[in-house]
Amino acid sequence: MANSNHRAGSTTERFSQVGFIIAAIGSSVGLGNLWKFPYITGENGGAAFFLLFIVCLILVGLPVLLAELAIGRSGRASAASSFVRLGGGPVWRGAGLLQVLTPFLILSFYIIVVGWTLHYSILAFSGQLFANDDFGSTFTAFSSSYWPLIWQAVSMVLVGWVIAKGVSAGIEKFNKILIPAMAVLLVLLMIRSLTLPGASEGVSFFLQPDFSELSPESALIALGHAFFSLSLGMGILMTYGAYVDKRQSLGTATVAIGAGDLIYALIAGLIIFPTTFSFGIAPDEGASLVFIALPAAFSAMPLGWLFGGLFFVLLAIAAITSAVSILEVPVAFAKEQWGWSRTRSVWTVAVICFLFGVPLGLSNGLVPGLMIGGRNLFDWIDFITSNILLPLIGVLIAIFAGYRWKNVAEASGLRSSWFRLWLFSLRYIAPILMLFVLLYTSGVLRL
């Protein structure tokens, strides 16, 4: 039975001011900027696309990010209830529920990739990854076995264990350890990449723009990635906002989170592109870049087993910190909706999400017949969440904060001039551009 008197607003769980920013950065610096960002940048001309990504981050990403935080802190509820508590009607309740369903679906396939990164970390450090130079066959053999399911379970248990410890003792403490560790690994790998023979060509590709390489399609891809890389539309920042102290400056936090995401993307590019150019790997290899192309590069460099191992540990840390934030969204909803304890909420949601993800993992190779319309189940859930649900929720957030919410000025904490700019973006820039992204990624708009 639902307990209508139990609300996230009554919780005593809170982030410290520094802990909140670190946890929020941890939610955004996931696999997107180490896996997806390099290959979409490679496919769209390099430096010019990176600059376009920065513009999109500022024009759309940061305004929507601030809106999510403000709604979460003012609502002091789960992502499902915050809209309603701030004056939204039944339609907004549905929008809130989408923000619980979406991260649940994302985690069901994201946790599979977390398992891949853990597995490859061990393979690289043990030297097994480099024992056979046919890295495509290595990945195919792995994905066609039962090992991905085992690693999927291990990953879910690890993430659930962190969440079960609570906001300050679990999420915050975990991120305070792993985010600095990630920063150290990023710098070490960047130095190694920049000192490789021929690395300067990769740096030039990434940092010297050629705007002739851009297209209208590139703009929409950059916009979509700016939104995705900040973990917007997943209910994460709205949920985290409910744990933020009233004294926290949301404007400052927004800038800090955006800067963290941008620096992470910059360093990731300075790792990937010098490495790929040094070893003659095409920078537009696609999703296979990380698990097939880069191992080939590491195998050819001195101490490749060490740097390859560190790279996959970095990937694993990035994946786990994001998975922790994703799981917290449906857990907060379960606590609020049914009045469950944190422990019960965590393990109930984790088990259901794992079971839902089993056929997704199997569809990657072990049971290749799990195909619908040319996509396997894993790809379908990825497509629906990333290309339809996330941009749709982004549009709804901008509309709610820009038009529906009466106390938006006070909640934002912005000075009048900054507030007017922010509100203008929420009303006239962010929803229109995100609508274009939605129409493009869903296949309705063709360029």
Architecture blueprint of SSEs:
Layout: H1 17-28, H2 31-43, H3 47-75, H4 82-85, H5 90-126, H6 135-143, H7 147-164, H8 167-194, H9 199-207, H10 216-229, H11 236-241, H12 250-278, H13 288-300, H14 304-338, H15 342-362, E1 371-372, E2 375-376, H16 377-404, H17 408-412, H18 416-441
Antiparallel strand pairs: 1-2
Short characterization:
The protein is mostly helical and 447 residues long. The protein has helices at 17-28, 31-43, 47-75, 82-85, 90-126, 135-143, 147-164, 167-194, 199-207, 216-229, 236-241, 250-278, 288-300, 304-338, 342-362, 377-404, 408-412, 416-441, and strands at 371-372, 375-376.
CATH architecture: Orthogonal Bundle
- Shape from CA axes? globular
As laid out across the biggest beta sheet, the strand order is: 1-2
CATH class: Mainly Alpha
Strand and helix order? HHHHHHHHHHHHHHHEEHHH
Q: Radius of gyration from the CA trace?
A: 21 Å
Structural class: mainly alpha
Cα end-to-end separation: 49 Å
Extract low-pLDDT stretches.
Answer: 1-10
